[in-house]
Design a protein that fits this description.
homodimer, about 400 residues, alpha/beta, 7-stranded mixed sheet
């Protein structure tokens, strides 16, 4: 009786592994500012709660395996407003968050032992889902020096091997906040077409793009209808992470038939949350605008505050709500732990996600950290100030 | 660009594959009695709806990855009342239905290419989940002739190979309704201990045991704490299938650490449904008694009505809400389809799940069907009458 190799190879979550130390700090009365996890504090639109408070239901039955019809229609309508066409009955399936959508995508496109190509750094939970499915990542590098832009066509192309089944990309990027330009997207598309690869596009942060920039979805690129799998989620878009409602959209009929098989096996996604989520799409454009503006203020704040800290290498993230700076230390995990166990400013400290867990076969992340700017500007300012003081003290302690 | 072999090998759900024909029949105005799917019509206790209607929440945040604390406590309390001890903080994780609990169990205990031992027939969605995880089933047979009792120790023992990682059993059984005696359970336990296998026990139908029989849980057997993984769900127990709330309980620390990794990667289970589910466990014992009595009436009804049909081979299921009779025809799938497309009695017909999909490497199921007795007694009586008339006509048509 053993624990399977594939599970043993899964590290503890980069985002949550220090949680026990945070819990301990809190138990001792410390206040902990959480920059480690991308859980937005924005209010969920009241439409969600209104819908579930007005439920008239006697038996909480299974929803259809592919999702509640009205929610699929709302999702299609949302895309249509963006100029993207998906048929709500045949090309969209509701999933338990984008996590399940990714699980379905990987199982359907990859054989055991194959590889999914993505960029370093990448969302750490991808790795766990890869290992669950018996596959491994393959990566090309992006760097903090140029704000994690994608490398040139030749570099991406050279990273494809016989084993590559698909390219997976998160855009806007978790963990870096990079928003890829149309040119960058077309670089990936060119490689995918030339090498005959699927494209799995994780666009859950699509509403979080700053400075008035226009987000370019993979679904707007012509000629890749058969190879594109679009993952999405209401979690960040509507500050509704707890609903666990995502979706998978795809025009490839065979793939969709595969996703239906996988959706059928787990029977359905939670009914009540789907009913609530259906109403979310009725919020006004004003809602998105306000949320977007709030996150842009936070982005500006974290960028400005981090700029003031000596030795921190940063860039200006254009989207999502993450920044992945390089810190003037050697081991960000040790530092992150120390911040929780040994440091505070007037009883307050900060929790960050060490960068190492967002990289595959790379040491670059050792002195990096992912910071989620999911706090209001005032708290964020305080948190980064504490981080700066922490860095100063830690550097002295380590003679850095 | 291909669809992966593992997904190609997944058949369309035995339970739902004829749904398009049922939809067509309904579109033509036919009434279809659904005996194909185990979706109970019993009312969800009001406690669930009351809890979610009284939600006071601004932001629908992620629940903890291992589940809402109160729900874990309620689950532990439920077990404690049955004389089963699980620590709510360390030995129980809330999952998206028992389906996800099974997914976690399989990924954690099996290497790619290994086998899970179960009995023929088995719940057809097991197969899909096996294939998702890169493993295959291995089976020993049970037969309609003796009401699907487990075979003797030697037969079970002989079915274990080098590749076997675990024994998976559903008790009470989906699809047969068999409830295994303590002796049968100990037979499996003996093999598991001798061969050093995990035991994955799917006990979601534990409240559906008839004729006053006492249900024996694997968790009541001493000496297997380290190898037992208990899957459970509120779906059938509380007529709350749509909540997608299940759990995995286990005393093996290493396994639990593995499940936590897997739970963390998918972030959380739906928050609102967990809040509702927490309240369900406050229903009175009377609730279980009433539901149980109702299903016993239905079991009696379907048994009696099927007994009247010429050539149908049956037995008395002791639990769950399924019966798996042998029909006096050659191809139950063709018959099931024909019932939807070509047959009705005064505009009414019946949908059944063909038996073949519940078997691995066996033709035995070809003339069997799984019937779920999830209709009230009156409808059930009508449905089985229609089934009998259908069989009569179909037999003539096929010269049987």
């Amino acid at each position: 009786m053993n624990i399977s190799q594939r599970v043993q190879e899964i590290p503890y979550s980069a985002i949550r592994k220090l949680t026990p130390y945070a819990d301990e700090a809190k138990a001792k009365g410390k206040k902990v500012y959480h920059l480690n996890i991308g859980a937005p504090d924005t209010k969920t639109p009241e439409e969600f709660f209104y819908a579930i408070k007005n439920l008239d239901m006697k038996t909480l039955s299974y929803a259809p395996s592919i999702g509640v019809k009205e929610l699929r229609e709302q999702t299609a309508k949302y895309y249509k407003n963006k100029g993207i066409d998906f048929d709500s009955d045949k090309e969209i399936i509701i999933t338990a968050g984008a996590s399940e959508a990714l699980l379905f995508a990987i199982i359907a496109v990859s054989e055991i032992g194959e590889r999914i190509l993505t960029c370093n750094p990448f969302y750490s939970n991808y790795y766990t889902i890869f290992r669950e499915c018996g596959i491994k990542p393959q990566t090309f590098d992006t760097t903090v020096e140029d704000g994690y832009r994608l490398p040139d066509y030749e570099t991406i192309k050279a990273s494809v091997t016989e084993q590559t089944a698909a390219i997976l990309i998160s855009n806007p990027s978790n963990p870096t906040g990079a928003v890829y330009t149309e040119d960058e997207i077309r670089r990936l598309v060119r490689v995918a077409v030339e090498e005959d690869l699927y494209i799995i596009a994780d666009e859950v942060y699509r509403e979080f793009v700053f400075d008035g920039a226009k987000f370019k979805s993979f679904a707007e690129i012509e000629g890749i209808e058969d190879r594109l799998i679009l993952l999405d989620s209401i979690s960040k878009r509507f500050g509704a992470c707890g609903a666990r409602i995502g979706s998978i959209a795809c025009k490839n009929k065979e793939l969709m038939a595969s996703f239906v098989k996988l959706a059928t096996a787990r029977l359905a996604v939670a009914t009540v949350e789907q009913i609530g989520a259906t109403q979310l799409y009725d919020v006004s454009e004003e809602y998105f605008k306000e949320v977007n503006e709030e996150y842009q203020r936070r982005r500006d704040c974290i960028y400005n505050e981090l700029s003031k800290i000596d030795g921190v290498k940063i860039y200006k993230p254009e989207g999502a709500f993450y920044i992945m700076p390089q810190l003037p230390i050697e081991d960000a995990e040790d530092f992150a732990k120390w911040m929780l166990t040994d440091f505070d400013v007037d009883g307050e400290t900060v929790m960050i996600a060490p960068g190492f867990g967002f990289y595959h076969n790379s040491e670059v992340g050792r002195n990096q950290a992912r910071l989620a700017f999911v706090l209001n500007v005032e708290d964020l300012k305080k948190a980064i100030k504490i981080l700066g003081l922490g860095l100063e003290k830690y550097k002295k302690l380590k003679n850095l």
